[in-house]
Give the backbone structure.
Amino acid sequence: VQLVESGGGLVEPGGSLRLSCAASGFTFSSYYMRWYRQAPGKERELVAVISSSGRSTNYADSVKGRFTISRDNVKNTVYLQMNSLKPEDTAVYLCNARVVGRHYWGRGTQVTVSS
């Protein structure tokens, strides 16, 4: 299993970013996918979850209405569209898959929200 995140960067408050996570090594369309984030000195936080079909999603209260998780089961990719970004969204964003009871993680992509 391999998960590779991309799309992070530096953005001003109120701006937008779109993260991508390219997955390989498992039957992507059969598994839920998750985005987590970890800020310095804080615990890892679940940000968003999407079902295997993409029809069901769930979000942390802190990002509801601003972030959208989606997936493309042909491209084996999960996305996180982040709008109205705030400084408190600054973190490393990590893609996660639970395959046959085991957690797999990407290396993460840094998102920094600052003026």
In short: The mean pLDDT is 97. The chain has no helices and eleven strands. The two ends are 37 Å apart (CA to CA). Residues 13 and 86 are 5 Å apart (CA to CA).
